[in-house]
Sequence to fold (487 residues):
Amino acid sequence: DDLFIDNLDSQYQELYGNWVTLTNTAWGIDSRSASLNNSDSAKVKWNLNIEKSGLYNVFIQFPETNDLVDTIKIELLVNDSVEDTILFVASDEFNKWLYVATLNLDKNQNNFLEMSCKNFDQVIRPMAMDAIKLTGYIRDRQLITDKEFMDLGDTSIDDTLLFNIELSNIGIDDLTINEVYSTNGKIEVLTTFPLSISGMSKIDLPLSFIPDQLGIVEDTIVINSNDPINPIKKIPFTVNVENYFVIIDNDDAGSYSETGSWFTSVAQAYGPTSRYAYIQTTSNGPSATFNFSLNRSGFYDVFEIIPQTVNSADNALYNILIGNRVVASMYLNQNNGSGNWKNIGRFYLPADSSISIKVIDNGQSTSGPVIRADAFKVLLYEESPDNIDDNNAVPLNEYRLLQNYPNPFNPGTIINYNLPVSGKVIIRIFDILGNEIETLVNEEKPAGRYSLVFDATSIVGGLPSGVYFYRLQAGSFVETKKMVFIK
Fold:
């Protein structure tokens, strides 16, 4: 059986140092820490009461600690004589078993491990201690990987994906990787063979994938080694190849900026974090800006993702700008479709231009209490020349109401319209009998191109499947189009 020795066990002893109990722990209910000034030292000791002589692997766990001392000395003592010394370099891997050494122990001897360190820095550095583990289950060679299945998610047809698989040898002898290949030939291995992995160590295996078709691509990575039990390791691989796209995340340095007071949220939908700000009742509330450029001109579907929420702004303003010019503006309920990529519109966007998407609280939301920002995905729908003269040129010299998309839809669809001059705008939804279902817009708007989302789930009592009409009224201009809702 594995032998675990915790800081609360009688086999654990603190020899010197200013030790205190911590509530954060990697093992058991607490841990111990010693704060070391410059030239201070600390030492602990474990009594290894084994029941059978033989080889043992020793592992240690550290609780998460900032600025841990760099190097720790570990000594094996047999009958008070030092038999082996290991210099253990501290890492940022916490709350997991870290390999220390393989020891040949005799149950008839008094076996001890002593761990000590000295702080040579001018700042205070802690030494933390929690638990060690001894296991007699020693393998000669065994290959394990950090992934049993590789799903790389979405990638652009224009991109080359570079990724790694971590290969670990949890045996005590050297392990040889003889060959790595993929069964369908979609993946390239960026190294030469054979590869050697020392006992109880790991390496990164570099790989690449170059898309040559749209859609789901599947393959299998095959690793051939001299693992005596499982010489062939297979890892399924999948990736979804889409048209050219870019993703802009709130964690992207240089691409994301804010006005007002924003905070980091523990909830996230894309990337490690998301951001939120409290909504205001005035028109100059907080805003978040996502900046990017594209290498192709064309029509793009713009998707937003925020954490799944029910307490976000119900009428947040979204502006899309090319340079300093607003080319699209819409109000969205952030709660609808939250937690997933949500299409907020299709827009013509030029290549090699400064483009930004702004999420703004301008005081129009009646519920919240927060406005959120996480990430946008801008996906090429159709490539078009730079000199296009379409409904996205702003300002326009004519009114235009575009066909909704998708159509048929369930539950949401996007409606685009253009205004050549400022004025009062009314957009209403009607059923086939002419009954008004909902008013989407009823306000003054400046000239420009606009996009809005009609979400059938917002209708009280639910919207039955069928044919509906949406009508734009702006000044003397009136236009109506048909759309189909299918549950």
Q: What stands out?
A: Residues 151 and 226 are 27 Å apart (CA to CA).
